Structure formats: structure tokens, C-alpha cells
Amino acid sequence: MTVLKTSMRNFLAHKGRMALSAVAVLLSVAFVCGTLVFTDTMGTTFDKLFAATSSDVTVSSKDAGDGGETTAGNGKPPVIPAAVVDQVRGAQGVKSAEGAVFSTAVTVVDGDKDSLSPTSGGPTIVGSWNANDARTMEITDGAAPEGADQIMVDADTADKHDLVLGDEIGVISALGTHTAKISGIADFTVTNPGAAIFFLDTATAQRTLVGESGVYTNVNVTAAAGVSDDQLKRNVLTALGTDYKVQTAKESADANKEGVGDFMDVLKYAMLGFAGIAFLVGIFLIINTFSMLVAQRTREIGLMRAIGSSRRQVNRSVLIEALLLGVVGSVLGVGAGIGLAVGLMKLMGAIGMELSTSDLTVAWTTPALGLLLGVVVTVLAAYLPARRAGKISPMAALRDAGTPADGRTGRLRAAIGLVLTGGGAAALYLAGAAEKATDGSMWLGLGIVLTLIGFVVVGPVLASGVVRVLGAVLLRAFGPVGRMAERNALRNPRRTGATGAALMIGLALVACLSVVGSSMVASATEELDKVVGTDFIVQDDNGMDLTPEAVAAIRATEGLDRVTEYKWTKADFTTPDGKTSDDTAITATDPTYAVDMRMETVEGKLADAFRPDSMSVHEDYAKDHGITLGSTVDVAFEGGGTGTLTVRAVTSSEGAIDAGAMYTSIDTLARYVPADKMPLTMMVLASAEDGQKDAAYAALKQSMDRFPQFEVRDQTDYKEALKDQIGQLLNMIYGLLALAIVVAILGVVNTLALSVVERTREIGLMRAIGLSRRQLRRMIRMESVVIALFGALLGLGLGLGWGATAQQLLALEGLKVLDIPWPTIAGVFVGSAFVGLFAALVPAFRAGRMNVLNAIATE
């Protein structure tokens, strides 16, 4: 009880000094809890949506994907005959059965040809209005579509694009463009996370989406009273046999959730990873806080020992303070996490993904995990300072000798740090020398972990040398004030090392990712310059295929010398060694592809692969299956027949563009795949006539104006788009890493604040002998800048090493250019100096306000 009272008294006495450490715990716990609440809420939203929109039993084609998306590559969803509806109605336990048609392989545009697809990446769905939709949607304006000239839109999409009754919109499918006017607006009775949904009448949907009447994409079946979904499924299977996919509402919802679940898992674990980095940075802050508090209470600890307190009791007293800090920070962090989740939901709403706070989901495990993590991390971080406090002897403490200085411990620490750093460097070397990216990635991960731990452990040793160099370069020009700032930073190398290490972690990741991102852009740009011989590339950035109407518009464009279509399908390959490779990708293009893309070959010429019944394979596949020029491969095309194709070229397996692709001609594909099963065109390459590039570019863009889903780019545009995509990804990662950097800044602030308190008497004496307030504040700011730059140098050095090694692995995948973004690195280094200045504002201000006489009288 006495230990508890002492701990409570000390905690409350130093509550101001504990505040920043509590904020670090709060931020880290908030990020973890916010991530969990946000992803759980997303899960709840999708669960409710899928549960509400799934009929008791759904019947569809076996070729249909779980979400009903196109799987055959021809732009049309798989269908079932209308006769199936009558068969289902005759099954026992069926209350009603209704055929429906829908497709996600569509684009919808307004009267100005602007896309109405969600900006959040959600699907665009066009289907027939049916009784199952009427269960989950309410028509709030107008009426359901009743003819070919009418279409209904969901309320969210109407609000986002200011659509009203009577507006004309166009539905672009593989079969062409269908225009209609809005007859009604319907609102979901549950939250729509971000899909754009449009409804046609059944007959129009059949013509527009699948091109024939008397067929449906699915049948929605409702169970009679007292009949379970499982029993209804069995009855329907009895009536239909096994020729169709039959799913209960739960099975349909689970299948739909699977794809969404993959996305949410990636998002969840990525965000939790960054929260883990923030926790790691926070550990240094907590260690520094308790180390300095223990040092400042040396005399107090000595008195406790002198009157009978044991080492264990002193140790326990410090750990109880850490426990209190962890509990307070974690409780506040849980609340802040829920607020963060709501903020993320609002942010997602701004970019098109709607999440309602009415679905806010806070599982009991979320606050439990947040409290557990916050408390455990805080107590573990305080263990070493607590252990050192217990080692203080009563006599040493009473004469204010401070915590024991163990030179042997320092030497052991330096040795361990050097061993870990050397081991990490060796692992990075092995990663860079690996022949396979999968093998090298394991060594890279090990090298990053070992070098990071090694630098943290050896940080105090490095601090002594690096701070002296920084002092000589930056501080000596400021005379005595600069020298005092340098000595203050060197006074406790362990503290400086820990403070700098907190900043080092975030900046190391920033530098590493900057090198990787810049190298990817530079490598892809070099590869484009080397390989791509076409002037223009037309494709959909979301992976949708080009419609035949769009391809025809490209071919009709004036000023084009050649147009090359690029298709992709699956096939089973039976090779000369007797082995069969299932679901192997094969690319079908026009013969002009050999001119448009200068693919490197190791045997033969790529142009020969486009001769009738010919193909190419890549080098690795040829070696694995004993294929040489003239070998034959039996190719069973998906949706078609089997042909025996002769290998006319072996392409290099390296390269960033189309690495590992195997080619044949579109004419050869058409010989074995029926016209209605032919895959759509994924991409079109076009080249202008001599001297007509600018005119052809303008004409091509004009031709594609009515197809806003497809982008027309020349090589410059393509490079810029690639750079922007990687830049957006890096900016998102930098934003998440900002949390760790904020926690590191708090660490610098806390270290300086506690250092000022620790040096109160010293500061009073310096003021008494003539140091002005301005000089005092400058000294503290310079000390902060040096500590920040020390952390930046370590972090940037580590990050450059990690990034260069990662690029060596990317080189095995064809991205061979190492590009170090020196402006970014320099910007981060200079920014670190400003971080140091910012962190010193409050401590320097407080130091300048000290009363000189009171400071001198401080013990």
C-alpha cells in the first residue's frame, strides 16, 4: 500500500512531465482502435447490404463469378435460359421465383458524356428492376422504368451528380450505347457503401446487357412460410440438377463479402502496421521520460532506500507509475480512436464511399486490445529505467551521485549494437546478391530488422561522434552558445541516442520508400523508351475492357497509320514434356504488335509468332518444359476448342513490360474460339502517320469523347500517369508515417522539457553570470536541432541502404534503374531541422521565463 501511495504521489507530482508520454500512448492506441472500429464498421455496412439484397436462394450460371461479374472476357455476364424460372417455381417450398438481369461490365455517362461511376472504386451496376430490389429500395421520386426510354438511378448517385427526373444518361456495354431518361430515383433502406446503381425494365436490360431476350443472369427465389433457406436450396437442386449454381442468402452474402474482405484485410493490417511503428517510436519517448524522472529523483530514491525500501519496492514504484500512465493514455486513446474512426468515415464519404455512423461498430475486443497494448507497451518501456532506479545505492543517492555509470554496460551495448548492425548489413548484401526476388525478400526483411535494432542499440555511441561533427559544421559559428548546445547534447549520449532513434525510424521508412518509388518510375520510364514503339495507348484505368464500339471508333480515326488490339484469355497448355499447365495466360494481338512493342527475343522473331497457328513462349517457360523453336504446344482455349500451335519465338523473361507473356495472333485465337466467346480488347496501341502525330492525337481524343471511361495517352502522358499513381501511393504512406513522426517530435519536446527541469540550477547560474534569455532560448533550440539532425542522418542513411537493396530485388523483376531522389532526401533533412526548432519552442520559452534566484536556489 505504501508503494502504491508513493507511486500515486509521484505520478501526480509529475503529471505535467508525464503528459507528452501519455499523448504518445494516446495517439498509438487511438490509431489501433480507430483502425479496428473503422474496418469493423465497414464490415457491418457490407454485411447489412449483402444480407438485405440477397434473396432466400439465388440461381445463376456456373460460369458466373461470386459477384456476378463477367468471367468469359466477352463483356457480357453469363446467362441462364428463362425456362429455369418455371422449373424453379415448380420446386417444393417455393413461394415465388423471378428472373433478373444485371451486369457490372458497364459504364454510365450523363448527357455531357461525363462518367457517373463512383470515384471511390465502387462498382457500377446496371440491372432490371425486380421485386428483390423493391425489398431493399424505396422509390422516393418518379416511378420505376417501364420502357426502353426510361431508367431509374439510386439516390446517392443522383445527389452526387445533380441528376433529376428527365435527365438523359447513357449505358455503355459491350453491345453498344443505350440512352434513356431518368424516370425515377430510389433510395436504399440500408447504407449503400458507394456503388452506382441503375435500373432498366427487364426486356431493355436483356437487350442492352446480354444482347438477347429469354435469358437471365440469375433467378431470385423466395421461400414459402416455414421453409428454411437450406431446405429450399435442396429442393431447387432437386428440380434443376447440378447444372447451375444455387446459393442460399448466407452463401451469396459470404461470397460477396469475400472480395470486399480481402480489401478490408489489406487496409486493416496496413494501418495496424503503421500503428505498430508509432508504438515503437513511443517506446523511446517513454524510456527517456522515466530515465530522466528517475535521474531527477535520485536523492528521493536514496532516502527511500535509507529508511528501508528494497530494490524491488523502488522498482515496483516506478512500474506502478508506468502502469498509471499506460492506463490513462490508453483509456483516452480508446475514446480518441472512436473519434478517429468517425473522422475516417467522413473522409471516405468525401471521396465517394458512404459509411453511416448508425452502423458504427465497437466490438468489446477493440477497447480491450487498446488497453492491453497501451499498458503492456508502457510498462515494458519503463522496465529498464525502473531496474536502474532499483540499483541506486542509498549513499550514492544521498550525495546526489546520480544513477550508476557502468562503463562495462556501455561497452557491451556498443558491441551488441555493432554485431547486430554487421549482421543486418550482411543480410542486406545477401538480399542484393540473390538470384530470385522471393529469396532476396527474406534477407531484405531480416536485414531491415537487424540494422534497425543495431542502430538503436549503438545509437549512444554514434551520438558522441555524429553530434560533434554536426556541432563543428553548424554550431561553432554561434560561439559559446553553440558550444554549450553541443555539450548539452553530448552530456547524456544514451538520452540523445534514444531521442534521435525515435525520429530515425520514421525517416528511414520515408527514405526507403522514396528510393523505391523513384526507382520504379525511372525504371518504367526507361523501359517504355526502350520497348514501346507506338505513339498512343488507349485503355481503361480500372481494368475494364474496351467495347467493340470504342475499338471501331479508334480504327475510324483519321491520321492513324496502324492500330493494334491487345486481348488476353486463359488456356490449358500441353507441352512437349507431356505436362499440362492449367489456366495459363495467353495474349492475342495483331501482327503489328511486333512493331509497336520491341520485345526482346532470345530465339526467333516475335513477328513470326503471329503467323497462322503459331505462338511465342517466354524463356523460363521454354527451359522448364524443354521447348525450342519448332516445338508444338496443344492449347485448349477457354470457351473454345484446342489447337496445336508451333513455337516461332522465345522471348526474354525479363523486363517490366509484359514480362512472361506468351503471344499468338487474334486470327489464330478466332479460329478456335467462337465469336460470341471471344475476349474483348484490353488495350489498343495506335501510331500516327508520318508527320501527323499532333493531328492524330487530337483526332483520337475527339473520337473517344463519347467513351469517357477510356483514356487516350501518348508516351509522355503515360509516364506522367505512372508517376502520379506511384506518387499518390507514396503520399498515402507518408501520411500514415506522419503519426510516427509526430510521436517522435513529442519525444524531442519531452526530452528537452525534462532536460530544462533537470538543469534548472545550471540555467540559473548561467543567467547569473550574464547569459541573456535570448541566448538561453537559442542554446536550447540549437540543442534540439542537433538532436533532430542526428536522428535524420541515421534514418536517411538506413533508408537509403534499405531502398538501394530493395531496388536490387526489383531489378530481378525488370526494374533495373536505381534512382535516388536527392531533392526529397535533402528536403527531409532540412525539414528535420525545422522539426527540431518547432520541438524546442515550448521548452525554450519556459527556460527563458525562469526566475534566476529561484533557479539558483533549486536543489
TrEMBL record:
Belongs to the ABC-4 integral membrane protein family. The lineage of its organism: Bacteria, Bacillati, Actinomycetota, Actinomycetes, Catenulisporales. Residues 58-77 are annotated as: Disordered. GO terms for molecular function: transmembrane transporter activity. It is a multi-pass membrane protein. It comes from Actinospica acidiphila. GO terms for cellular component: plasma membrane. Keywords: Cell membrane, Membrane, Transmembrane, Transmembrane helix. This is ABC transporter permease. It is found in: Cell membrane. Residues 274-394, 736-851 form the ABC3 transporter permease C-terminal domain. The chain crosses the membrane at residues 269-295, 318-342, 362-384, 412-431, 443-475, 496-516, 732-757, 784-804, 824-845. PANTHER family: ABC TRANSPORTER PERMEASE YTRF, MEMBRANE COMPONENT OF TRANSPORTER-RELATED.
